[in-house]
Amino acid sequence: MKTIKFTTAVLLTFMLSFSVNAQWEEKMITMLESDPFKESIFLEMVPPGFIGGQEALEAYISDNLKYPPLAIRQGLEGTVVVMFKITSEGKIMDAIIKKSFKPILDEAALDLIKGMPQWNPATQGNNTIETYYQLPIRFSLK
Fold it and tell me: Which intervals hold domain TonB C-terminal (predicted)?
């Protein structure tokens, strides 16, 4: 008698697991068929750019970066990373030091960014959008 009950219990468990599995598969198929992202269109973002391109940006930095005299006397060389917002109109705002080297060079890097001309703003689809940009500023005595 115990064997019959045990066999029946095993068979019921086995059948229930198939039933649950079939229901799960049916729900998954329904979920996949009603996927809200199926017909979504994701627009690629075109990043902002310095007007005139990378060469113009490098020329701007070369012409306008003021190496502090004290930093020159101390032989300070290094890279400061500045992060700033480029508005949907291309204006530079809210510059902050993302990676500091020395406070004296940090200030010079911020001054460079604050004096920077407008950029071409980032775009997404046909719209200009506000973005953040990180720019490494290299201080080298060579």
Answer: 52-142
Q: Fill in the amino acid letter for 87.
A: T
> Each residue of 28-62: pLDDT tens digit?
454 555 555 555 566 788 999 999 999 999 999 99
> Does pTM top 0.85 for this prediction?
no
CATH number belonging to the domain at 47-139, selected among 3.40.50.10240, 3.30.365.10, 3.30.2420.10, 3.30.70.20: 3.30.2420.10
Contacts 24+ apart (CB under 8 A), 68-73: 68/104, 68/105, 68/107, 68/108, 70/104, 71/102, 71/104, 71/105, 71/108, 71/139, 72/141
